Amino acid sequence: MRVDIISIFPDYFGPLELSLIGKARQTGRLDVAVHDLRTWTSDVHRTVDDTPYGGGPGMVMRPEPWGQALDAVGPGTLVVPSPVGKPFTQADAHELASLDRLIFACGRYEGIDQRVIDDAADRMPVREVSLGDYVLFGGEVAVIVIMEAIVRLLPGVLGNADSLTEESHAAGLLEAPVYTKPASWRSRDVPEILRSGDHGRIARWRRDQSLLRTASRRPDMMSVYPVDDLDKADRKTLTEGGFQITPPSVAK
Ligand code: 6GU
């Protein structure tokens, strides 16, 4: 996979040389190029912003440098991190991980002139994505987050591929809590069942923990979880945990 990142702060991307992303680059699985947007300015001050039409606070990124930058590095699937984007999900990570060419455009200030995105969309797929309902200074940190989500899905990057199927969000539920040695620490014991060796009971316990965690922490995920995927034991766990199952449907 080839990734081009365009930003006025290329130094933000040092962390992409570390850990498993750095390793994916060293082994050639991933090719990342970071570009300074100011490369494509033509005035002595290398200006990238200007005041917004219609008035209002802050500054807007000018279209000309962005147009030239995207002409130079494109085409590819353009990802624009933005607080007004669609929420970025694990499903998006999987889709982007399947592509050969990604371009990230990091906006700053109040955002990028909308015509840049509209113009790019005539030539390439464009996705405006948000990490959540809060505002960052710019897209740089968001790109690092999105890159982590994508690169760990690339074949051969994670040592143990089972980590991907077992993890939170893979099955539409949050994962159960995890423990390692020692069995007792500060008077807190690892749940006995995890040390029992009974794989059937362990699987049921984890399933119960997943259901209860998801229902309490992420009711939004439960409301879209296919009700038909809940078996009789699942229903018992949730009901006894004080959660209502709506709409009620016939148990399997
Ligand atoms: Cl992806 N970018 C920016 N600038 N702010 C955000 C965001 C992204 N997601 C939430 N807030």
Quote the average pLDDT.
Answer: 95
Question: What best-fitting shape do the alpha-carbon axes yield?
Answer: elongated
Strand residue percentage = 15-25%
Bound molecules: 6-chloroguanine
Low-confidence sequence ranges: none
Using only CA atoms, what is the Rg?
23 Å
Total strand segments: 9
What features would you describe in this structure?
This protein is α/β, with parallel strands linked by helices and 252 residues long. The chain has nine helices and nine strands. It has helices at residues 19-26, 63-73, 90-97, 114-121, 140-151, 162-166, 199-217, 219-224, 232-240, and strands spanning 2-7, 31-36, 49-50, 60-61, 77-87, 101-105, 126-130, 184-185, 188-189. A five-stranded parallel β-sheet has the order 2-1-6-5-7. Strands 3-4 form a two-stranded antiparallel sheet. Strands 8-9 form a two-stranded antiparallel ribbon. Helix 2 runs parallel beside helix 4 (114-121). The mean pLDDT is 95. Bound molecules: 6-chloroguanine. 6-chloroguanine (6GU) binds at residues 81-83, 85, 129-132, 134-136, 138-139, 142.
